[in-house]
Amino acid sequence: MGEGGADSPPAAEKKGVEEEDDFGYRLFPDRNKKPQSFLVRSLFTFHNKCQLMLRLTLETNPYARLLLEALKQSGCTVFNDRHFSCENCDGCVSGGFDAATSQIVLCQNNIRQQSHMNRVVTHELIHAFDHCRAHVDWFKNVKHLACSEIRAANLSGDCTLMNEIARFKFGLKGHHQTCVRDRAIRSILAVRKVSKETAEKAVDEVFDACFNDLEPFGRIPHSKADAKRAYRDFQNRDRYTANL
Questions:
Q1: Per-residue b/e over 68-99, b at no fewer than 16 CB within 10 Å?
Q2: Could you tell me the residue range of the domain that residue 186 belongs to?
């Protein structure tokens, strides 16, 4: 599963046996539970708030709206009730993309602000877009995972100047690239049982190509204003292509 905001992977060991990779599912315990009824879920404030914030993101956020249109054009229409699930997650994650079900998990116990929801939805929709347009081997090819994590960190707003300042991280030349690399590595380590060296090698080997792959935005959206311009450009590009 892809992930948007882990600090470090939780450790778990089996005595005398090398632990099998669960592909990050341990971070999303509700994935293995029997679905609750609508009445039961409606009683939980976290779930209600998550659903409301998700709806606002999908209806108003330019990053998300562009990605939803791009997915639709690629033959992968996204439906709110089918492709998004608000669930309780491990304390270190904000969301994930479950490639096995083509579903985005939103961690209702960890997403408390609308701006955070906007970033998580955008991050995971980029994974969904990559899943739709390319034959991504999420589970066996760490380079494929690294590429999508690089793109998600680069294009979702995870590494905007304001977000980095909020993390008390400051830099000048090349700071955006450094942020993207670091967050991609951290996301891989959160959802795969690989060494830090393996994660760093995978990210470094594909970094240039994947960092420069700006689809479907056509640019790095450093702000909501950039995302709005990218959304308009995407719509105009579609209209131009339709007239050819």
A1: bbbbeeeebebeeeebbbbbbbbebbbbbbbb
A2: 137-215
CATH number for the domain including 111? Answer: 3.30.2010
User: pLDDT of 163-198, one tens digit each?
Assistant: 656 655 666 667 899 999 999 999 999 989 999 999
Asked if residue 10 is part of any domain, the answer here is no
pTM of the model: 0.80
Residue 208 and residue 130 share a domain: no
Look at residue 43 and tell me if it is in a domain.
yes
Peptide bond before residue 216 is cis, with ω within 30 degrees of 0 = yes
Which residue is catalytic, options 3, 87, 124, 149? 124
Judge whether 124 counts as a catalytic residue. Answer: yes
pLDDT, tens digit, 9 for 90 and up, residues 107-129: 999 999 999 999 999 999 999 99
